[in-house]
Amino acid sequence: MNNTIGIINYGIAGNIHSVKKALEKAGGKTLIINGPSDFPLVDKLVIPGVGSFKGAMNELENHALIGSIKKFDKPILGICLGMQILAELGFEFGKTKGLSLIEAEVKPILCDGKIPHMGFNRIYVKTPNKLLQGVENEEFYFMHSYEMVNYTNISALTKYNGHTFVSAIYKENIYGVQFHPEKSRKAGIKLLSNFVKL
Amino acid sequence: MTVRIIAKLDVKPPYVVKPVHFEGLRKVGIPSELASKYYDQGADELFYIDIVSSLYQREILDSEVERVANNLFIPFAVGGGVKNIDDCAKIFRMGADKVVINTYAVQEDPSIIDRAAKIFGSQAVVVNIEAKRWDGRWQCYTDCGRIQSNKDVFDWANEVEQRGAGEILLQSVDSDGRCRGYDIELAEKVVDLTNIPVVVSSGAGSLEDIKNLIEASNPSGVAIASLLHYDRTTVQEIKQYLNKNLVMPV
User: Fold this and answer.
1) What is the interface pTM, i.e. ipTM, of the complex?
2) Number of domains within chain B
3) A122's torsion region: left (phi>0), alpha (psi -120 to 50) or beta?
4) What are B21-62's pLDDT values in tens digits?
C-alpha cells in the first residue's frame, strides 16, 4: 500500500491548497479527489472545510461524491465544515441533510462571545485516540459560526466565553476536528502526521 | 481565548511597503521573506493587503501571494481591489483562507459581501474599514485612505455584519504609520457595537500601545506592521510582554 491521502475537492468554494501543503509537510502523499473514480487510488480521506453546510453538500452531490464517501471504510478526517457535514443535519441557510456518518446535528453557536469564534484556542481531550496523541494540551486555530451537537462520539471539547462545544469527534474509522490543523503551526502538523501514520 | 497577534503586510508589488499616514511609502522587504520571519516568531495570523491594486485597477500579483502561502501554517488573509466572486475565488486558489474587501463594497456595491459570505462562508470574509475622524464622527475612506466616502463608520460596521462579514479589519487613517498609539476610542466603539470579531490596526509604536488598546477595547486581534518591519520588536516579545503585563477587566 502506498498510503495516499485523498483530499475532497469542492470546486469554486475552497482553499484545499493549504490542507494539501500541510499534509505534505506532515509526510503524506496526496491526491485531489474530483470524482468517484479517484477513490480506489487512495488509502485515506480528508474532507476539508470550506463554504457553508448547504453549499458543501451541493458540491458533493454535483460531483457524485456522497456515495463513495459513505462507503469509504478506511480512515477519514473531516476538518471544520468537513467534520460538520459528517452529521445527519445542518441548519446553515436552511435545513440540509448531511453525510449521516455521525449521529449529530450542526447548529449555530449560541454564546455571549463574538461569532465567528476565531483564533487559537485550547482543546480538552475527553476520549484519547491516535489522532490527538501528543497534542492533547495544544492550541489550535478555530474559525466557525456553527458547532456540532453530539453526545456519543466526543473526543475533545473546547471552551469559548463560558460555552463548551465539541472540538473533535471519533467513531471507528472516522475522525473529525472543528479546528484547522493546517492553520495551527507545529501542533497542527503533528496532528496531521498522526493521521498520515494511522 | 487570547488576543490574536497579526502581522500585516502592506504590499506595493513587489515590495512590502510602509505607508506613513497612508501616504508616502517606504520599502521594507519582500512579502514572502517577511511572512516567514513573522511566522517563525509566532504570529497567529497574517494579513496581506495589496495597497495599490484597487487604485490602479490592477490584479493582485499571484506568484508572490502563492510564495507567501507556501511557507505559512497559520491563517492568511489577502485583500486589494476585490470586485467580484471571481476575484475572491482566485485569492482562495492562491492559498489564502480569507479575503479582505473594502473599496468596491463602499463605492460600488455592498452586496459583494453577501455574495462572498454565502459562497465562501462568513468566516472567510473580512471587511476592511478605513476610518478617519471628521467633525466629531468617523467616516469611511477607501483606496488606502485616499478617497473619502459619505459612509459613517458605525453604520457601515453594522451593515457589513448584517451582510455576513465574518470579521472587521479596522484601520485608522489618522493613526496609521505614525507609531503614536491606536485610535482607542474608535476601536472601543466598533468592538462594542458589533457581534463579529474586530481586528484593530494602525498606530502601534510601543508594546504599551498594544497593551493599552487591548485593555480598553478587548479586540479579537491586533494587527502590527511598523513595529515588526523595523525590528523594533518581535511577535514573541509582544506575546511575552502581554502575558506578563496585560490586565483584563473582570
Assistant:
1) 0.90
2) 1
3) beta
4) 666 788 999 999 999 999 999 999 999 999 887 666 666 667
